[in-house]
Write a structure and sequence with these properties.
By secondary structure, the chain is mainly alpha-helical. The chain has helices spanning 2-28, 38-66, 71-94, 97-121, 124-127.
């Protein structure tokens, strides 16, 4: 399944973001919260934002593929998701609001596309079947 590739890439991103938080917590000796360190605050939000969006996006991507969407559509949506998350990471790290805005636009766009694709490809005859 093509969506497995994007699940793997997404989890690698989540691991990288998580390791950043752990590294900074260790560096600043902060076990909970952010200790008032802006670098740690940023790392926590980068990780948190990814955790908020990636799981729902991967579920939509998997269902889209299972419902029979074209392989190229799965690749486009998966790539847009990964690129959006990388842009968000870069924009947050470098304090580039335009990058963050573009990243969120890409993420929301891909979510909407996947919702519509799932509605289009959904096996409606099974959804409304009484069997």
């Amino acid at each position: 399944m093509v969506s497995a590739l994007y699940a793997v890439l997404s989890v690698l991103l989540l691991l990288k973001f998580s390791f950043d938080v752990v590294r900074l917590r260790t560096q600043y000796r902060v076990s909970a919260g952010d200790g008032g360190f802006s670098e740690l605050q940023i790392a926590i939000r980068i990780h948190g934002n990814a955790v908020e969006y990636i799981p729902a996006a991967l579920i939509l991507l998997l269902f889209m593929e299972m419902n029979g969407a074209e392989t190229w559509m799965v690749h486009v949506c998966g790539l847009l998701l990964i690129v959006g998350r990388l842009m968000h990471y870069h924009g947050f790290q470098q304090r580039l609001f335009r990058w963050r805005r573009s990243a969120m636009g890409a993420t929301w766009c891909v979510l909407i596309i996947m919702v519509l694709a799932n509605l289009w490809y959904m096996p409606w005859e099974l959804v409304f079947s009484l069997h």
